[in-house]
Write a structure and sequence with these properties.
five-stranded mixed β-sheet; 11 strands
């Protein structure tokens, strides 16, 4: 029987590079790895048009679709993107913002209210710093260009949230620079941070803040999941196990290469120190795959989405992901 052709759209991260290069091959699949430079483009094309058989997808957008019972995907417990986001909050000192509580009552720019990064940031602000999110007025739009952040096909909110769409013709960065909004949070920093001394990170010592958070909460925030179109999975269920196994193998290859430090594979001059710090904080592998290793993180994200009016009720993690080998990390 010939292999099944699967178009898989994903950014080229180190953990998927062996899959992209063909060094790792999923059994029974001819994988066409479609490397797109921006995850937002992948999400818009997959969620809006079902263009690929499989892809990475925003975790919050996937969960929202499951909650709305409008999900044409199944998900593997593979998380190609994880990231702490305390460093992605820029504030105006002229607005009197010196600490997280000072965000209350302010106008805050966000690329997309429902995006996973923003969900995590708001969750941190509420639970770790006591910020009343309901007092904040949100201004939604692209951070460093005018218009919207991509063309997202997102589910409607289940609660009233004060969101203003930025129709000014300016970017959120320009609005922050000119004092029309008071802060920006999300997945990239506003360009005005480079030239306006009044614009600063809310957490200048973000690495220490993020390390402290992880050591206390044991959560390394998940941003993206890997999904397969439901029609593909139902017609060819072997695809899930094959792709999951290949993604695990690809990550193992990448980790082994990262640890080969006789010459530097990445442009990080002190990479030896970075790897040793990773081992100290995370115990060697911060990028664990599988449901059990990530259950608490997944459930925390879901609880934040409920509190922020994105979904109506928590969804059990077992309902969100296909069953896989629990020992694959």
């Amino acid at each position: 029987m010939p292999n099944l052709t699967i178009n898989f759209a994903c950014e080229i991260y180190d953990r998927v590079m062996p899959l992209y290069s063909g060094e790792v091959k999923p059994e029974g699949i001819d994988l066409n790895f479609i490397a797109l430079g921006r995850a937002r483009h992948i999400f818009d094309r997959m969620a809006g048009k079902l263009e690929f058989e499989a892809s990475e997808l925003s975790a919050s957008e996937y969960i929202s679709r499951v909650a709305a019972d409008q999900c044409p995907f199944v998900a593997l417990p593979v998380f190609p993107s994880r990231m702490f986001r305390h460093s992605f909050i820029a504030v105006s000192r002229k607005a009197g913002i010196r600490e997280p509580k000072d965000l209350e009552g302010k106008r805050v720019g966000v690329a997309l209210y429902t995006m996973t990064a923003a969900v995590w940031i708001r969750g941190h602000l509420q639970h770790d710093f006591g910020v009343d999110l309901k007092s904040i007025r949100w201004v939604q739009g692209a951070v460093n260009s005018s218009g919207s952040h991509g063309t997202p096909a997102v589910m409607p909110l289940v609660a009233d949230v004060p969101i203003e769409v930025n129709a000014s013709g300016k970017s959120l960065s320009q609005l922050l620079d000119e004092g029309e909004i008071d802060a920006v949070m999300g997945t990239n920093m506003p360009e005005c941070l480079a030239h306006n001394p009044d614009i600063q990170r809310l957490f200048p010592n973000f690495r220490q803040v993020e390390t402290d958070y992880y050591e206390r909460a044991r959560i390394f925030p998940i941003m993206h999941v890997v999904v397969i179109r439901r029609d593909v999975y139902e017609s060819h269920p072997f695809v899930a196990e094959s792709l999951y196994t290949a993604l695990c193998q690809s990550k193992r290859v990448a980790i082994n290469r990262m640890r080969s430090l006789g010459s530097l594979r990445y442009m990080l001059p002190w990479m030896i120190d970075e790897v040793e710090e990773m081992d100290r904080v995370f115990g060697g592998d911060p990028w664990a795959y599988g449901l059990e290793a990530n259950r608490a993180t997944i459930e925390t994200l879901g609880s934040y989405m409920v509190e922020q009016g994105i979904i109506a009720a928590p969804i059990p993690a077992d309902r969100l992901f296909l069953s896989t080998d629990p020992n694959c990390t």
